[in-house]
Amino acid sequence: MIKATLKKILDLLFPKNYVCNMCNSEAYEPQNGICENCIRKLKRNTEPNSVKISQTDGYTWAFLFDKTTQGCIHRLKYFDCRYLGEFLAQFIAVEEEWQIDCIIPVPLHIKRMKKRGYNQAELIANALGKRLNIEVVSDVLVRVKDTKTQTTRSKSERAEALEHAFSVIKDVENKNILLIDDVCTTGATLTSCALELKNAKAANVYAATACYTPKK
Ligand SMILES: [Zn+2]
User: Fold this and answer.
1) Which of 53, 77, 165, 188 qualifies as a cystine partner to 159, CB 3.0-4.6 A?
2) What percentage of the chain reaches a pLDDT higher than 70?
3) Could you tell me the distance, in angstroms and rounded to a whole number, from the CA of residue 37 to the centre of ligand 1?
């Protein structure tokens, strides 16, 4: 009884400290916003540069996209949990030798942006930019093709649908760019963005995502 009352008081005083950002369940003093159970299950990236994404000069990710992380990504994308962008960004480690000039979030099509009200990739990019003190530019790359949900498509179908789906509308010449997205599934989105940036004479295009879906 006393314990329950104390917990209620603590919840009022420190509400966000008592919910795990991954599984959304109550947690006692979660570390970096993650409960003990999720910490045990999370698969962090332990091998930098182990995944190659076509057209990029380097790629990194923070967590594997699996049962432990999918709830968090889902709430970030569809349930207006914008604070999760900052939460996820803290786990993205960027290679110092990349010498990034600017960060560009993978854009949403204007129709989807209007419907959702925000771009989840931009939330992650903004938090990362703030931490690394690197400029975030969200008006350089635009999505000109509104591709339908990609989850049921094969890798080649995705790549085809994403061909010329993006357009570069501002100068990126000789810049080292870091592309940011929430999840990398087949890499087709990052490849398509990187190709357009390279065509616009960007020096190097790197990419980082909060989650990575392993190849089956
Ligand atoms: Zn948890």
Assistant:
1) 188
2) 94
3) 6
Question: What range defines the domain where residue 159 resides?
Answer: 42-212
179 and 110: one domain? Answer: yes
Residues pairing with 183 in the sheet = 211
User: What's the pTM value of the predicted model, to 2 decimals?
Assistant: 0.88
Q: Tell me: the pLDDT tens digits for 143-168?
A: 998 876 666 677 777 778 888 899 99
**Which pairing describes strands 102-105 and 58-64: parallel, antiparallel, or unpaired?**
unpaired
Ligand 1 centroid, distance to 192 Cα (angstroms): 34
**Whole-angstrom distance, CA of residue 50 vs CA of residue 193:** 20
Q: What is the per-residue pLDDT for 144?
A: 93
| Alpha carbon of 67 to ligand 1 centroid (Å) | 11
CA–centroid distance, residue 185 to ligand 1 (Å): 23
Q: Are residues 130 and 31 in the same domain?
A: no
Total number of domains in the chain: 2
Cα(136)–Cα(2) distance, rounded to whole angstroms? 49
> What CATH number does residue 142 fall under?
3.40.50
